[in-house]
Specification:
The protein contains twelve helices and 18 strands. The protein is of the alpha/beta class and 441 residues long. The chain has three domains: 241 residues, Zn peptidases (Aminopeptidase, 3-Layer(aba) Sandwich); 92 residues, 3-Layer(bba) Sandwich (Glucose Oxidase, domain 1); 79 residues, Arc Repressor Mutant, subunit A (Orthogonal Bundle). An eight-stranded mixed β-sheet has the order 1-10-12-11-13-16-14-15, sandwiched between helices. Strands 5-4-9-6 form a four-stranded antiparallel β-sheet. Helix 4 links the parallel strand 11 and strand 12.
């Protein structure tokens, strides 16, 4: 609906953060946040003490890797310094000689991706392990191995990254993505890049009806910690989305909110329909579920949809790198999400000034579909739109009610307003997607 220019170089941002061994809480994640601040300088970093209770969860310690190796007869077979995915994320310290049978209890590989290193994490388990390409398993042919996992698990802060843009209303829409997943890009750094780009576009607007919160968090525990420590955000938030896995080819997947039939579900589906050729819609948590299950959980109740391109072949492996990311895929996903926000910002409650149906020909508004058949959809939409312009539903709510393209409803209501036939009243969404009619625009 609105024209924008790209605000950041998303591919540049991804390339700088991608190599970092990011996880829930560590120096690499903090470094990623500092890089992100170069692209969105108003953002802030907020930390929560490890070991502290947040709802039913406990924030895990900070995890740093000093050294991790498997040696056989003095020869190093696996070395963490070669790739951060070689060590199971959040492995506990270990040093000693183990048998072949015992080592295999601590080795992970993926036969479906035989040349890639899989991503395995054990955040909340007292264990250790290594990940190897499946083709490398044949090299483990000795009776005994020397293993060293030199890691520290220390008290400190689990940090999250956020940026807040105020609007004329304190009602807040949340844009969320993850920052963890060491040395991987599509999952889930692409959501971070798209989110920052959208926030900078929103900042450039002369005015905003809603307030906006961008969150980049360590998966699940980060959003839990943030909301547990910021209950006012929950109180003010009307909806949001989670996005990741946006840079590869393949169908775009729109995952519905927990309710499944909200204002935001309709906008998400309409935006996909109007901007993407290949897409599908799935129920809540039936795609690559992530922090939307925190935002849209019982007791939090922020209606949250998600946009991804899941599944993709390189998921949770070392093959998830910059080589599989295409800028045009990022831009397409960004524009779908931006379109949802633009519809929200543009929405209003229309109220006709005069009774009865509008005399279209008398106001030079009749779409002459007899002479121009391409105008037939516009004429057909008028037949459905006209009876609903009663000052009770917003433009988007009318479109949802009659299952119509919102652009058509905007067309008729805007044309009537231009001719002095209709008044516009402010529309704000609340948790139940009710209209709040305020002062006339």
């Amino acid at each position: 609906m609105k024209n924008y220019t790209n605000s950041i170089n998303m591919m540049d941002l991804l390339a700088r953060i991608a190599p970092l061994a990011r996880t829930l809480a560590c120096e690499a994640t903090d470094k990623a946040f500092n890089i992100m601040k170069e692209y969105i300088p108003t953002a802030k970093i907020e930390g929560y003490s490890t070991g502290s209770k947040v709802w039913t969860w406990t924030i895990p310690p900070r995890w740093e890797v000093n050294k991790a190796q498997i040696s056989m007869n003095g020869q190093v077979l696996i070395d963490y310094s070669d790739h951060p995915l070689t060590l199971v994320n959040y492995s506990r310290p270990f040093k000693g000689r183990v048998s072949n049978a015992e080592l295999k209890k601590h080795l992970w590989s993926d036969p479906s991706q035989p040349n890639a290193i899989p991503y395995v994490f054990k955040y909340y388990q007292d264990n250790w392990g290594f990940c190897v390409p499946h083709t490398k398993l044949d090299e483990f042919n000795s009776d005994f191995y020397d293993v060293e996992v030199d890691v520290s698990l220390d008290a400190g802060k689990l940090n999250v990254f956020y940026d807040f843009l105020s609007g004329t209303s304190k009602k807040t829409f949340i844009i969320c993505s993850n920052i963890c997943h060491p040395a991987q890009v599509n999952d889930s750094l692409t959501g971070v890049a798209v989110g920052i780009d959208i926030m900078n576009r929103l900042r450039a607007r002369k005015e905003r009806k809603y307030s906006y919160l961008f969150l980049a968090v360590p998966e699940q525990i980060g959003s839990i910690a943030y909301f547990a420590n910021n209950p006012i955000v929950i109180e003010n938030s009307i909806g949001g989305f989670f996005s990741e896995m946006l840079g590869t080819s393949g169908p775009m997947v729109g995952q519905k909110t927990r309710d499944g039939d909200t204002y935001f579900d309709f906008l998400m589906e309409q935006s996909l329909k109007s901007r993407v050729k290949d897409y599908r819609i799935v129920p809540f948590l039936k795609s690559a579920a992530n922090d939307e299950k925190v935002m849209d959980s019982p007791g939090v109740d922020i209606p949250s949809f998600a946009i991804t391109r899941a599944p993709y072949r390189e998921y949770h492996t070392s093959d998830d790198n910059m080589s599989i990311i295409k800028d045009y895929n990022l831009e397409e996903a960004r524009d779908v999400l931006q379109n949802v926000i633009d519809f929200m910002e543009a929405d209003y409650v229309p109220r006709l000034r005069n009774p009865g149906p509008v005399f279209l020909s008398g106001y030079d508004l009749y779409p002459n579909w007899y002479d121009d058949p391409t105008l037939l959809p516009l004429w057909s939409s008028f037949i459905d739109v006209m009876p609903k312009i009663e000052g009770r539903l917003s433009v988007i709510e009318i479109a949802k009610k009659i299952n119509c393209d919102p652009e058509h409803v905007f067309y008729w209501c805007d044309r009537f307003h231009e001719r002095g036939l209709l008044d516009k009243y402010e529309h704000l969404v609340d948790r139940r997607q009710r209209s709040l009619i305020g002062e006339e625009n």
